[in-house]
């Protein structure tokens, strides 16, 4: 889904970031049917041992179809790992409760005992859910100890929906907006795969106002008996008078239900915008992850796919849009028109979209004939051509890259005035917040432009990863989000090769998530979740950015061609179905074998990156000439942090690492999969002998992880670090920009964890006066930004400010604030340098900013400020000014028509140094008449980043927590983790830690904020340790340097 939030231009962004059923004959290729589980296992084992690769097996039990897909690539040396792997898989199935399989295990010579069948208290289920992949996580992988509310929330599996007929009619035209509602009806045709006495559907916040009936598809006899609600599980259970029989089709009809149409950003909801004095209402939707059930009763799980026939009823002056094109329009009288939409392909409920609005669109057709439209409110329609252009190009690019046509006849994109996330990939109707889709040259910055291109690309990638092939359950959310977050770079690179997207990846995603994933309160990429709170919680940087980073690593060690063909294999084999992560490993592993690639044990490698959290540090010990030795250990920002025990590692926190290196004699950064040395998790140390490795003397160096393809940090002995630092000082251009960024990021992070002395980390900044590329500057500014945030209330801040002025002044003087004609990345660099120069008080920067802003105030219709530096200029002018400057910006905010400009102003308004202005602004943040609900979190976070606003925001946060959790953000509570992570990010005193603990202890239920609070506690402790360990070192270093 939702791609992430962005808090302003570039640089200061924080990330939030957020089947089965029965197709018994669909996937027959390479498969066969047998009748009992035991026989299956025997045959399976025989095949696994004999063939070693590529087995897909199905078998049918007495009451239902079970599908087990297992492909076990042989290991690289050609020996078959099939038997062991098959037994392991057997045990996993056994742990899910299939006793036949369980009893088959020991007969194959395994000494392992079968795990106990989990006995979750079940709702009125007819059978344990049986799917490919396991519903319950194997206990050897990870266990969750949190038990919020009801955990066994899964639907029974007796019935598979084949077709929904849904009608929805919003009422938002004449009455008071508080009274807006929608009503609807639904008919669901089911195939029964297991005898049952009820039909269980999801439902939330809907009143059933009509009748319910159940019939066999060929009979008229009514089978409805009674119904009841299980509100904890959001179920309606409809009991029948007669047993529903396996193999038969049934229909359930709910003739009428009603729900509130309110601006809660979830399910079918109300959005609005103003035109002059008039308020225009629209109805729009956001289903992911669990709000389709708030729109109509349905089986609301990602793997339960069905076809849908949708009808939307609107007033004549409005338009309706859904996933498919309209087939016909029926006049219902009294100005009501019913739009009937073409039947969808088989899809998940969370991908449905329903919109009724008065928007306009621009239109184009892709090379392959897909109609592509970009919708916006009429006033913003001129801002659509850029996203339309990149959308059309990227859709075709993905069709060609994946070798699979986009399967729908049309693709709509629409910019919604109120939207909780960044965008949502609904199949054929992608919804965006305005900043993620609308672009206006001269008003929007290059950062805004890239944001639009990236989000468009991300959502289009989902049309394959997520929509065509869907994770079987939310525990594999990363399959969606990690992929979309990686291939979004490919799409944008296709349209803008000069933007160096693959270099940007390293600072935007990999180094960014390293920070988060260095905490002991992180979580594995594959994470067991059940309750909607837990599902909402994992729309975070791990699912997105770590997912993307390990996919990038995999592309590197497999090679581009194998990766690309393996993805096509994966998508083709599971299209219109659902996937477990092993399906991906097997597709790629089999492709690798087919191409005789040296690395094919993809599952074995990738399990170490997805089933345990955190990541390794590889230490390179440089001994004599011609050899180095490698060791690995787990990186933790605070190695003394107490493990909450929520997750255990099946691998003892050791990884299979695709290692590469270069040296001062080679200086080779164009490494490929042929250069990979696979470090096994089982080897305590690995020697590498190579005549090209120079002696460990003088300024000779070795550098690990060229281009930072691997998801690991690298440490060296002190001499090698100094040699690298000297290389940067004498000629930094021989080290690739990515690795300049890596050296800075690794050194500072290793200093933070105590793996390296802070004095060495500080020295990586020595060369910065000569650095003129954005990527290393971005890495440096985030490390130095952290130091700044730690020191801002410390006596040392004065010296640190002088140091920062020294580092930035030459770049600032050279670049100036004139961005005319700048290239994309030059504009990024100017943005970063101007922001540093002004915030550390370089007078020329501050003066020019104030002058530009006052020029704008004198002539509000002619803004003279280049979009690339607007954020800094606005912020400086408001910080240095008073209420007049603030009010001017507020007025501009209210009248601005370009969302990117609005969002910049919203950020700048938090820069005031007046306490009363900031307090008033905090109150406005939760007044939807002043600031849209979608922007509330951002405003509170912006204020918390202001030195003066920090304690105000914390007080506000504590006072309003219950209201925010239970009222204001109800339905979109996943935004709270972003709020918590950011507001508490700079806490670094014992006093703050005590306050935070007291607050957490005082709350019985932290809702979807639970994980973020645990992380905040750990981070605060880590910050306190950092202060104790590093402030004296920084102080003496700054002193020695003359600051
Ligand atoms: Zn996404």
Mean pLDDT: 86
- Structural class, by secondary structure, is alpha+beta
Question: What ligands does this structure carry?
Answer: zinc ion
The coarse silhouette is globular
Instruction: Report the β-strand fraction as a percent range.
Output: 15-25%
Largest sheet: 8 strands, mixed
Report the helical percentage. 25-40%
Number of strands: 32
Determine the N-to-C terminus distance. 47 Å
- Low-pLDDT ranges: 2-148
Compute the gyration radius: what is it?
29 Å
Helix tally equals 28
Describe this structure in words.
By secondary structure, the chain is an alpha+beta fold. The strands form 10 sheets. Strands 3, 4, 6, 7, 10, 13, 15 and 16 form an 8-stranded mixed beta sheet that branches. Strands 18-19-20-22-21 form a 5-stranded mixed beta sheet, with helices on one face. 56% of the residues are buried. Helix 1 packs antiparallel against helix 2 (82-95), helix 5 (446-462) packs across helix 6 and helix 16 (774-791) packs parallel to helix 18. Zinc ion (ZN) binds next to helix 5 and helix 6.
């Amino acid at each position: 889904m939702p791609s992430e939030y962005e808090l302003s231009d570039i640089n200061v962004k924080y990330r939030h970031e957020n089947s089965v059923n029965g197709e018994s004959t669909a996937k027959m290729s390479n498969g066969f049917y047998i009748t009992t589980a035991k026989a299956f296992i025997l045959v399976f084992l025989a095949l696994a041992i004999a063939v070693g690769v590529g087995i897909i097996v199905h078998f049918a039990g007495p009451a239902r179809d079970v599908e087990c897909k297992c492909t076990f690539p042989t290991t690289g040396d050609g020996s078959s790992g099939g038997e062991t792997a098959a037994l392991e898989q057997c045990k996993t199935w056994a742990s899910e409760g299939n006793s036949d399989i369980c009893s088959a295990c020991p007969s194959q010579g395994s000494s392992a005992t079968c795990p106990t069948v989990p006995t979750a208290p079940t709702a009125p289920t007819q059978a344990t859910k049986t799917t490919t992949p396991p519903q319950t996580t194997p206990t050897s992988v990870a266990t969750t100890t949190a038990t919020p509310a009801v955990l066994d929330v899964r639907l029974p599996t007796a019935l598979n929906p084949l077709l929904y007929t849904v009608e929805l009619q919003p009422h938002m035209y004449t009455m008071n907006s508080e009274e807006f509602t929608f009503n609807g009806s639904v008919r669901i045709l089911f195939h029964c795969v297991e005898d049952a006495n009820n039909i269980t559907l999801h439902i939330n916040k809907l009143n059933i106002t009509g009748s319910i009936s159940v019939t066999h598809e060929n009979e008229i006899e009514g089978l409805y008996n009674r119904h009841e609600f299980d509100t904890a599980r959001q179920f309606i259970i409809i009991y029948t008078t007669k047993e529903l029989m396996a193999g038969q089709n049934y229909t359930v009809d709910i003739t009428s239900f009603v729900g509130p149409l309110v601006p809660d950003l979830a399910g079918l909801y109300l959005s609005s915008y103003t035109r002059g004095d008039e308020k225009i209402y629209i109805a729009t939707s956001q289903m992911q992850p669990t709000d389709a059930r708030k729109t109509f009763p349905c089986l609301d799980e990602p793997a339960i796919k069905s076809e849908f026939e949708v009808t939307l009823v609107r007033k004549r002056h409005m338009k309706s849009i859904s996933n498919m094109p309209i087939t016909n329009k029926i006049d219902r009288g009294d100005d009501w028109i019913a739009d009937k939409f073409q039947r969808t392909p088989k899809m998940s409920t969370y991908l449905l979209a329903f919109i009724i609005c008065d928007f306009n669109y621009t239109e184009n057709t892709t090379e392959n004939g897909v109609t592509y439209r970009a919708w916006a409110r009429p006033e913003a329609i001129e801002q659509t051509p850029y996203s339309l252009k990149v959308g059309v190009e990227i859709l075709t690019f993905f069709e060609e890259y994946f070798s699979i046509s986009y399967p729908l006849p049309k693709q709509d994109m629409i910019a919604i005035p109120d939207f909780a996330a960044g965008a949502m990939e609904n199949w054929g109707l992608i919804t965006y917040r305005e900043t993620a889709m609308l672009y206006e040259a001269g008003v929007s910055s290059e950062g805004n432009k890239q944001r639009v291109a990236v989000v468009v690309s991300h959502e289009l990638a989902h049309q394959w990863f997520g929509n065509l092939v869907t994770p079987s359950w939310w525990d594999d959310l990363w399959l969606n989000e990690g992929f979309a977050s990686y291939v979004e770079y490919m799409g944008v690179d296709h349209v803008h090769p000069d933007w160096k997207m693959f270099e940007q990846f390293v600072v935007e995603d990999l180094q960014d998530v390293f920070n988060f994933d260095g905490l002991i309160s992180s979580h594995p990429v594959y994470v067991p979740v059940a309750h909607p709170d837990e599902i909402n919680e994992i729309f975070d940087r791990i699912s997105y950015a770590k997912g993307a980073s390990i996919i990038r690593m995999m592309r590197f060690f497999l090679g581009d061609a194998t990766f690309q063909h393996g993805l096509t294999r994966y998508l083709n084999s599971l299209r219109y179905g659902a996937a477990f992560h092993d399906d991906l490993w097997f597709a790629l592993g089999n492709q690798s074998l087919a191409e005789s690639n040296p690395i094919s044990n993809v599952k074995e490698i990738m399990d170490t990156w997805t089933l345990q959290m955190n990541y390794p540090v590889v230490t390179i010990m440089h001994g004599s000439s011609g050899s180095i030795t490698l060791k690995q250990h787990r990186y933790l920002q605070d190695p003394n942090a107490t493990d909450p025990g929520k997750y255990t590692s099946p691998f003892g926190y050791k990884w299979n690492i695709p290692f590469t290196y270069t040296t001062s004699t080679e200086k080779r950064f164009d490494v490929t999969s042929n250069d990979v040395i696979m470090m096994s998790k089982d080897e305590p140390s690995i020697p590498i002998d190579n005549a090209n490795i120079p002696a460990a003397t003088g300024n000779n160096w070795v550098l690990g992880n060229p281009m930072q393809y691997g998801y690991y940090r690298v440490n060296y002995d002190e001499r090698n670090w100094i040699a690298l630092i000297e290389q940067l000082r004498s000629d930094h251009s021989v080290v690739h920009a990515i690795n300049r960024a890596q050296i800075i990021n690794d050194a500072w992070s290793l200093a933070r964890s105590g793996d390296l002395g802070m004095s060495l980390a500080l020295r990586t900044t020595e060369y910065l006066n000569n650095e003129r590329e954005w990527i290393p500057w971005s890495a440096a500014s985030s490390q130095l930004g952290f130091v700044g945030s730690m020191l801002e209330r410390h006596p040392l801040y004065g010296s640190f400010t002088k140091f920062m002025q020294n580092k930035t002044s030459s770049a600032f003087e050279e670049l100036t604030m004139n961005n005319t004609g700048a290239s994309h990345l030059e504009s990024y660099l100017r943005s970063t340098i101007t922001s540093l120069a002004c915030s550390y008080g370089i007078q020329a920067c501050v003066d020019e900013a104030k002058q530009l802003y006052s020029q704008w105030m004198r002539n509000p219709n002619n803004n003279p400020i280049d979009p690339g530096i607007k954020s800094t200029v606005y912020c400086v002018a408001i910080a240095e000014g008073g209420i007049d400057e603030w009010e001017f910006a507020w007025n501009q905010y209210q009248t601005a028509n370009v969302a990117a400009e609005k969002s910049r102003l919203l950020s700048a308004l938090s820069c005031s140094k007046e306490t009363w202005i900031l307090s008033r602004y905090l109150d406005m943040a939760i007044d939807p008449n002043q600031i849209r609900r979608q922007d509330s979190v951002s405003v509170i976070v912006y204020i918390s980043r202001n030195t003066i606003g920090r304690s105000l925001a914390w007080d506000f946060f504590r006072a309003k927590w219950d209201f925010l959790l239970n009222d204001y953000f109800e339905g979109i509570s996943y935004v709270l983790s972003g709020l918590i992570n950011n507001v508490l990010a700079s806490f670094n005193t014992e006093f703050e830690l005590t306050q935070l603990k007291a607050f957490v202890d005082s709350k019985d239920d932290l809702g979807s904020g639970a994980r973020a609070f645990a992380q905040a506690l750990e981070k605060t402790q880590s910050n306190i340790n950092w202060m104790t360990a590093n402030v004296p070192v920084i102080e003496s270093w700054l002193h020695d340097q003359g600051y």
